[in-house]
Amino acid sequence: MGRHLTSRELARVLGVSESSVKRWVDDGTIRATRTAGGHRRIARADAIRFIRTTRAPVLAPELLGLPDVAATLSDQRSSGRENERLLDYLVAGSSAEARGLIQALYLQGENVASIIDGHVRVAMERIGELWLERPDGIFIEHRATDICIHALGQLRGTFPSAAQGPVALGGAPGGDPYLLPSLAISIVLAEDGYQAINLGPNTPFDTLRRAAEDLRPRLVWVTVGSLTKAEVLEQEVTALAAAIKPLGSSLTVGGRGAARLRHSGLEHLHLGGTMAELSAFARGLLRT
Ligand code: B12
After folding, report:
1. Cα 79 from Cα 131, distance rounded (Å)
2. Which atom of ligand 1 lies at the shortest distance from residue 138's CA?
3. How far is the CA of 177 from the centre of ligand 1 (A)?
4. Ligand 1 atom closest to Cα of 226?
5. Are 278 and 272 a contacting pair, CB within 8 Å?
6. Is the CB of 253 under 6 A from ligand 1?
7. For residues 273 and 259, what is the distance between their CA atoms, to the nearest angstrom?
8. How far is the CA of 226 from the centre of ligand 1 (A)?
9. How many angstroms does the Cα of residue 150 sit away from the middle of ligand 1?
10. Three-state secondary structure call for residue 16
11. Which fold has domain 4-63?
12. Is the CB of 128 inside a 6 Å radius of any atom of ligand 1?
């Protein structure tokens, strides 16, 4: 599908008349451009913004380029059950439904940070306990990670890239295999207006430093999933903080394994526990 919708298409998405859409465009409620012939054209991102702010129901998600939403549309409004639904889909390997649910949550107005803190993390925590209970637990865990990667990648595609935004880059340290946290951070920061460069798991601190020297980011993130020795982690983080300070970059460190740095007295870094905290910090930096 193209990146723009006609008034008629958006009317079908929303289940309203074409004249309503035209009226909303004309009074500025929906952003749109005009073709040479004077026809209204609504960018997909603007249609999604309108749906998110008005909490409008979505009747034809395929016209928005989100066919997977249809898989979960029937009961997407059953509030309070989404955590369990994501867990059910991940355990069953229902990839399209999991992707659709995450898209649906976003269309209903949830921001990326809250989808990850409140849905993905919660479901993955439960999945992390399955290996104790059932022989296929580890296979389910690997598959669930893959499904989440696809879902988050698709979510990333629903809002425009901030080509002019400040750069942020980061990853998980050498030896740390966790894919989801760094990917999640890059999408949260992209939503906040950063050009986010995810160097992914297993990225040595030295590589992060070199990337920072090259790209002079406003923000560097480190997500620590593995339980590295506290002294080693502290040393590496201190060295990175010192190296990027002259570049004008801020450092944020978080994740399960970062909790042990809390009392280290390290300066110039922000120790956060959630994507919501990360997002608040990153948005604060944009204002300074
Ligand atoms: C998937 C998974 C794996 C996969 C990873 C696949 C991959 N390539 O990504 C694999 C199979 C490789 C794996 C391996 C292991 N795992 Co594992 N794994 C998990 C699981 C189920 C999900 C992790 C995940 O991706 N979560 C989703 C992300 C988005 O959430 P999150 O990591 O919690 O991050 C949140 C916050 O921490 C925060 N955050 C994260 N980073 C940052 C950064 C900043 C700057 C900020 C502000 C915030 C922030 O925001 C996120 C969202 O809220 C967890 C379960 C759990 N309870 O976490 C176990 C878990 C972490 N694993 C565990 C274990 C034991 C292991 C192994 C030792 C198993 C083994 N015997 O081999 C190995 C160790 C690997 C290593 N080298 O460290 C244990 C750890 C126990 C402990 N003592 O901490 C857990 C908790 C499972 C359990 N309940 O027993 N694992």
Report:
1. 29
2. 11
3. 9
4. 78
5. yes
6. yes
7. 8
8. 7
9. 18
10. coil
11. Multidrug-efflux Transporter Regulator; Chain: A; Domain 2 (1.10.1660)
12. yes
Position 103 scores a pLDDT of 94
Residue 188 CA to residue 198 CA, distance in Å, equals 11
pLDDT per residue over 247-256, tens digit each?
999 999 999 8
Provide the pLDDT confidence category of residue 107 given band limits of 50, 70 and 90. Answer: very high
Q: Which fold has domain 70-156?
A: 1.10.1240
Given this model, what pLDDT does residue 263 score?
65
Ligand 1 mean position to 151 CA, how many Å? 18
In the numeric block, the tokens 């993905």 are attached to 120
pTM here? 0.94
Chain segment 61-92, per-residue pLDDT in tens:
999 989 888 877 665 445 556 568 999 999 99
For the chain, the domains span 4-63, 70-156, 167-287
Distance CA 244, CA 107 (A): 37
1-18 per-residue burial string, b: 16 or more CB within 10 A, e: under 16? eeebbbbebbbbbbebee
